[in-house]
Design a protein that fits this description.
heterodimer; A: 257 residues; alpha/beta; Glutaconate Coenzyme A-transferase; 8-stranded mixed β-sheet; 22% strand; globular; B: 301 residues; 34% helix
């Protein structure tokens, strides 16, 4: 018997990537919950920035969108979006950016633009928003996505947001720093090999096996020699998520099994 | 000189068929009243530009006003896809929609270039993305001061930009607080500017707090007094975002018949925004913002 959901585990794992004092570019859903959880647990000095221009936010309710009015009330600053992207992101102030997407590939490239051909799409997705620039310009990127052959193909249909492109030194050679550091799915956590820049399974969530991962990933994914088990959320963390961060279950609807 | 007029007159005078139109506001202050008036006056062949098309452009697309859209994120924030946008792109209904796609940073730089009368602006963004492959407007240049290659985006110069704000005087000196988005840059980039506001105030009120003026009257063509003019989006300090309506829009827009009923009930069937807010009834009170006053500052010398 466990008393947490997979989503809660993902939120708790993502929160552990944040250090006290980090400047974090926050998105809605799992990233927002993770950052707010870290802020209440081990990183009270975290600075949250939303691409809407709110800096140093202390939201009194769960923000429904990245432009929620609760992000403004009590924040440290509200700046034009030109400043968000030029002065905060491009200048190199953002330590961690959280991203999701419809597809993430072997080298951490993200697609949130189209499934199929760009000119004749099977599915038209929302597009980049600020994702491309976060992937290009944040010091490090943490990705959250579901684990399936559809969502983790060997190569994305469209590179909206650059990861390590075709691997090796390609990203660096184009003048980009940073890059994706961690991919958190509903089955496990992946890191990127230092040389090949390929996604490698680093830890399994409790109850999942390497076999399940292989059956649900679009290429023959490599497994780290020191494969570990993802630590489940503590009782304190699940209480904060349920009672304080998402009391109505807006983003984390499913109940613990 | 007063620039005060009704939305009907402002749209009739300053928004023309085939114009490049911008209605900005990032989640906050989206000028829905203006969008509805453009639908009512049946403008056609518009090119619409905006970072996030949001429900306002989804409505204009479904109403058949739009030929082309320039954007960076086309979704219903916190809810799901924009169905009218997807129908137009995937199936060409009610008419094919040409798209020109950037990222938020790219759109912001396009407005800033237009606002500064520069042909383009460079950025360190974009190496490795497929966006530069499918949109030939992205160009690469070599820095004249270093060995770096930088991607550039071209200036955007709208025919007309429409913004909603908390308050302005009759000359169009416009004050905004809360999220600024890209309104200032979009307004300065534009040939004509329409401002709609929750409150028209005396110039002395504007002059009492000049740091809050985002858009100066010198670039404004028309001022429209339009309380609740941003619903279902929000106005900081006036009313909250109507998140329930954003959720309802998913069902309304999924089907062309339900969308037509919405248009008949809430746009074509009403004369103006005052009729719309009347029809909102008790919902207006539910969305009323609470009071969080700032500490006063001293402008004396």
């Amino acid at each position: 018997m466990t008393d947490y959901t997979t989503s809660e585990l993902m939120v708790s794992r993502a929160a552990k990537e944040l250090k006290n004092g980090d400047v974090v570019f926050v998105g809605i859903g799992v990233p927002s919950l993770a950052v707010n959880l870290a802020h209440r647990m081990h990183a009270p000095g975290l600075c949250m920035i939303y691409e809407s221009g709110a800096v140093g936010c202390v939201p009194k309710r769960l923000p429904i969108s990245i432009g929620d009015p609760c992000l403004v009330t009590g924040s440290l600053a509200v700046v034009p979006m030109l400043d968000v992207f030029n002065l905060y992101l491009q200048r190199g102030l953002i330590d961690v950016g959280f991203l999701g997407g419809a597809q993430v590939d072997r080298f951490g490239n993200i697609n949130s633009t189209v499934i199929g051909d760009y000119g004749k799409p099977k599915v038209r997705l929302p597009g980049s928003g600020g994702a491309c620039e976060i992937a290009a310009l944040a010091k490090k990127v943490v990705i959250t996505i579901a684990n399936s052959k559809r969502t983790l193909p060997e190569r994305v249909d469209f590179v909206t947001s650059p990861g390590y492109l075709r691997g090796g030194r390609e990203r660096e050679s184009l003048g980009l720093k940073g890059g994706p550091e961690l991919v958190i799915t509903d089955m496990g956590v992946y890191r990127f090999d230092r040389d090949t820049r390929e996604m490698v399974l680093a830890s399994l969530h409790p109850g999942f096996t390497v076999q399940t991962i292989k059956e649900n990933t679009g290429w023959d994914v490599k497994v780290a020699e020191n494969l570990t088990t993802t630590p489940p959320p503590t009782a304190d963390e699940t209480r904060i998520i349920r009672e304080e961060l998402d009391p109505q279950g807006i983003f984390l609807r499913s109940k613990a099994g | 000189m007063t620039k005060l007029m009704t939305m009907k007159d402002a749209v009739a005078r300053f928004v023309r068929d085939a114009d490049l139109v911008v209605m900005e506001g990032f989640t906050h202050l989206i000028p829905f009243a203006a969008g509805h008036e453009i639908i009512r006056q049946r403008r056609r062949d518009l090119t619409l530009a905006r970072l996030t098309p949001d429900l306002i452009y989804d409505q204009l697309i479904a109403a058949g006003c739009v030929r082309k859209m320039i954007f960076s994120w086309a979704g219903n924030p916190g809810v799901g896809p924009l169905h009218a946008f997807r129908r137009a792109v995937e199936q060409g209904r009610p008419r094919p929609l040409e798209i020109e796609e950037y990222t938020h940073f790219g759109m912001v730089l396009r407005f800033m270039a237009g606002a500064s009368d520069l042909p383009f602006l460079p950025t360190r963004n974009y190496p490795g993305t497929d966006l530069t492959r499918v949109n030939p407007a992205f160009k690469e240049v070599r820095s004249p001061y270093s060995d770096e290659e930088l991607w550039c985006v071209p200036a955007l110069r709208p025919d007309v930009t429409i913004v909603h704000a908390q308050r302005a005087d009759a000359d169009g000196n416009t004050q905004i607080w809360g999220l600024y988005g890209v309104q200032k840059e979009a307004a300065f980039a534009s040939r004509r500017v329409i401002v709609s506001v929750e409150e028209v105030v005396e110039p002395s009120v504007i002059r009492s707090d000049p740091n809050r003026t985002l858009i100066p009257g010198v670039i404004v063509s028309a001022v429209v007094h339009e309380p609740f003019g941003a619903h279902p989006s929000f106005v900081q300090g006036a009313y909250d975002r109507d998140n329930d309506f954003y959720v309802k829009w998913d069902a309304i827009s999924r089907d062309e018949a339900t969308f037509k009923t919405y248009l008949d009930d809430w746009v074509y069937g009403l004369d103006d925004r005052a009729a719309y807010t009347g029809k909102m009834g008790a919902r207006r009170g539910e969305l009323q913002a609470d009071r969080q006053m700032c500490a006063p500052v001293n402008y004396g010398f």
